[in-house]
């Protein structure tokens, strides 16, 4: 059996195109399982997984928890809001206390970039990065690419634009790495103030006109404005942002081709996407949610084989 080249999933930067392919093929099998009347397999029956979330999350945490339960793993949920972290306990102490309960794998979200990388050097359990600050969110990028592959047949050769708040987004960085490793062309689009200064060094095209970006692409992955991560104002108002960067169905229908519309969620309806665009035939947003469970099942299963 093929196996991953890594013991942890810390970021897309660390994995190979072959790893991505293996994850997708495994996810294909799990997607078949999820469409059966009995949606459970005993693959991780003897494995205990801790979901350790130091930052708020609804969709990612629920998706991981469902994936773990579908694989018959034992699941422990930890959130920092009601924990000893509030009393000053360090990250390493918190995790070591969890490991003392004989946990095999940790799914972690943390507001500090590099937190899962730090832990991977100090603890024996497999670690899955469920988002570290504004750095990476590898399983989101994998499910995004998997959804493109499902809709368009393959990712290689496709033109994908990521639109919105690139500066504060961990989804954007992971997606850029994942798409490039699979042979897609990548563009980023947004106000200059929301584009990182280093962005062109990553080999992506840069566009500030949303209409031109949509005319160029096969797939538009639209990000929300991350007001909770912004320490200052990057544009005059949400209304102005919507005026220049909001996408509605009328705009999509006026393009001279069909494009695929994606969003990692949660959507700020009426800001980056209108409801009629989000719910249109262009959109694969709900497919992304469904595929998230299959991708996370694949990642957990493959890391468990590495031990």
TrEMBL record:
GO MF: amino acid binding; aspartate carbamoyltransferase activity
Aspartate/ornithine carbamoyltransferase carbamoyl-P binding domain mapped to chain residues: 7-150
Catalytic activity, EC: 2.1.3.2
Reactions catalysed according to its record: carbamoyl phosphate + L-aspartate = N-carbamoyl-L-aspartate + phosphate + H(+)
UniProt binding sites for L-aspartate: 87, 170, 224
Keyword field contains Methyltransferase: no
SUPFAM superfamilies with a match to the protein in the record: Aspartate/ornithine carbamoyltransferase
GO biological process: 'de novo' pyrimidine nucleobase biosynthetic process; 'de novo' UMP biosynthetic process; amino acid metabolic process
Binding site for carbamoyl phosphate: 59-60, 109, 137, 140, 265-266
UniProt keywords, alphabetically: Pyrimidine biosynthesis, Transferase
InterPro entries: Asp/Orn_carbamoyltranf_P-bd, Asp/Orn_carbamoylTrfase, Asp/Orn_carbamoylTrfase_sf, Asp_carbamoyltransf, Asp_carbamoyltransf_Asp/Orn-bd
Keyword Ribosomal protein set for record: no
Broadest EC class assigned to this enzyme: transferase
Family affiliation: Belongs to the aspartate/ornithine carbamoyltransferase superfamily. ATCase family.
Record's function text: Catalyzes the condensation of carbamoyl phosphate and aspartate to form carbamoyl aspartate and inorganic phosphate, the committed step in the de novo pyrimidine nucleotide biosynthesis pathway.
The name this protein goes by in its record: Aspartate carbamoyltransferase
């Amino acid at each position: 059996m093929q196996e991953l080249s890594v013991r942890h999933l810390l970021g897309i930067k660390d994995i190979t195109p072959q790893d991505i392919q293996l994850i997708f093929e495994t996810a294909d099998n799990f997607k078949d399982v999820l469409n059966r009347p009995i949606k459970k397999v005993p693959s991780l029956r003897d494995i205990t997984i801790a979901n350790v979330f130091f930052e708020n999350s609804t969709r990612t945490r629920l998706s991981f928890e469902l994936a773990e339960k579908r694989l018959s793993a034992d699941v422990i949920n930890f959130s920092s809001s009601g924990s000893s972290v509030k009393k000053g306990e360090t990250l390493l102490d918190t995790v070591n206390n969890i490991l003392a309960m004989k946990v095999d794998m940790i799914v972690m979200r943390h507001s500090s970039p590099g937190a899962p990388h730090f832990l991977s050097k100090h603890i024996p359990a497999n670690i899955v990065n469920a988002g570290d600050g504004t750095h990476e969110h590898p399983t989101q990028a994998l499910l995004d690419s998997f959804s493109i592959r499902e809709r368009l047949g393959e990712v290689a050769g496709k033109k994908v634009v990521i639109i919105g708040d690139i500066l504060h987004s961990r989804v954007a960085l992971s997606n850029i790495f994942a798409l490039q490793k699979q042979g897609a062309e990548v563009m980023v689009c947004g106000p200059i103030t929301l584009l990182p200064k280093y962005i062109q060094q990553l080999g992506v095209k840069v566009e500030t006109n949303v209409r031109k970006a949509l005319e160029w692409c096969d797939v538009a992955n639209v990000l929300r404005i991350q007001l909770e991560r912004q320490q200052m104002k990057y544009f005059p108002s949400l209304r102005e942002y919507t005026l220049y960067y909001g996408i509605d169905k009328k705009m999509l229908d006026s393009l001279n081709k069909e494009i695929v519309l994606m969003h990692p969620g949660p959507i700020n309806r009426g800001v980056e996407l209108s409801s009629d665009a989000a719910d249109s035939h262009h959109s694969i947003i709900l497919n992304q949610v469904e595929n998230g469970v299959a991708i996370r099942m694949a990642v957990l299963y493959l890391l468990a084989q590495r031990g």
